[in-house]
Amino acid sequence: MTISRRTMLHGLGVTMALPWLESVSVFGAENRSSNTTAPVRLACLFSGNGFHSEEWWAKGEGEQMQLGKVLESLHPFREKMLFLRGLYNEEARIGGIHSCQTGNLLTGAHLADGGEIRSGISMDQVVAKHYAGQTKVDSLVLGCEHSIAALHKNYSMIYSSHISWSSDTTPTPLELYPALAFDRLFRNEISRTDESVIDAVLDDAKELQRQISKSDTQRLAEYLESVREVERRIDSAGKERRLQGWRPTLTTPNIARPADGIPQDIDEHMRLMCDILILAFRTDTTRVCTLKLNNDHSSLRFPNLVSDRGPTQGIDYMIHHLLSHTNNGDWLKVNQFFVEQLAYIAGKLDSIQEGERTLLDNSMILYLSSMMTGNHNNDQLPVVILGSGGGQMKTGRILDYMGQPNRKMCSLYLSMMDKCGVKLDRFGDSNQRLNEV
């Protein structure tokens, strides 16, 4: 059944895209009669400073695949995962410091020094330009830690704070505020109103429910509730006020708390950003999302995690960057916390059916860091992909490129962009694809 109607729910100041419904041809709305295939979504997730040197590994294939402790939370998704070894960025090995290992992670470009800022357009933004005009938002670029404005050994620390680049000289602005990211998805004007997004589109949703199948009615109800739940959590975010990152000299506020600030508890902040990514993909509001969980050279602390030092102590005695040089049990717990965000996204996407596949199957979720370990080792990079790009990739495998002539990260990006419909002869420092991907 194809309903002759707009594929959006509308309300005062609000436009909300629909999830996949069997009764409504949402995807490919410009040519509704011939294209009902769900699009390929691309997400790039980043966490800085690498991982525990002994616990980032995988062995075997499919459901027999074994994972190191860092990756334990990905166990349910082994058959939908690619684990890649041996890939690296030649240009990132020049300075051996954080800033020149991160700024070209998705570009493969040479980084300018001397205070000048120059990289290259990143892979995610190339795909976003390809999808431009097909969704409400070309791309979402989210972050959970403020950018660093400083120089380190003659390189701008902006490089440590950004992996997405809209042009050679323009790092894509990060949205750190969950409420504003949420508004960008659903509101026609980015401003706070007292009315819930769901309340605004309720009349349109009720009209639609009378025209769709029983199973679609259930899907729509679950979808609307998931949006309302994110709204509730945004409203309450930050009330626990567990401070992260750099510790100020003032321990209590001397002015009134500003409204709509960044959540002060890092676990809630990250989870909200994950939920916004999920909503963005589920509604086809965007098909490209980049989520920087923290900076390279990060100052985050983790009082939400129990330290090996004792059951009453959180892992907030040392910032993330310094902790990465310890390789101890607390470092492992922090690694696991980051990967759990990836597992959370994968689980939610995999629970959403889009025709014959799940939303995870119709996505490629790239997770990586700028170095293998906290000791700046980047002769190979930690890389995991979840999802098959709409069935275009054979997953449940380990691909080892150590010792191979073609082991450039940009070769991986060429292969991934192909699956988004972007065919390039060259990207960054590569003119070859990884044929196995």
Describe the structure.
The protein is an alpha/beta fold. The chain has one domain (8-246, 261-419): 3-Layer(aba) Sandwich (Alkaline Phosphatase, subunit A), CATH 3.40.720. It is 27% helix and 15% strand. It contains ten helices and 19 strands. It has a seven-stranded mixed sheet, sandwiched between helices. It has a two-stranded antiparallel ribbon with strand order 1-2. A hairpin with a 2-residue loop joins strand 15 and strand 16 (357-358). The model is unreliable at 1-6, 28-34 and 245-259 (pLDDT under 50).
Which shape, going by the Cα principal axes? globular
* Cα-to-Cα separation, first versus last residue: 36 Å
**Strand order, biggest sheet?**
7-12-3-17-18-6-19
Q: Assign the structural class, choosing from mainly alpha, mainly beta, alpha/beta, alpha+beta, or little secondary structure.
A: alpha/beta
Number of helices: 10
CATH architecture name: 3-Layer(aba) Sandwich
Task: Please supply descriptive tags for the structure shown above.
437 residues, alpha/beta, Alkaline Phosphatase, subunit A, 7-stranded mixed sheet, two-stranded antiparallel ribbon, 19 strands, 27% helix, disordered N terminus
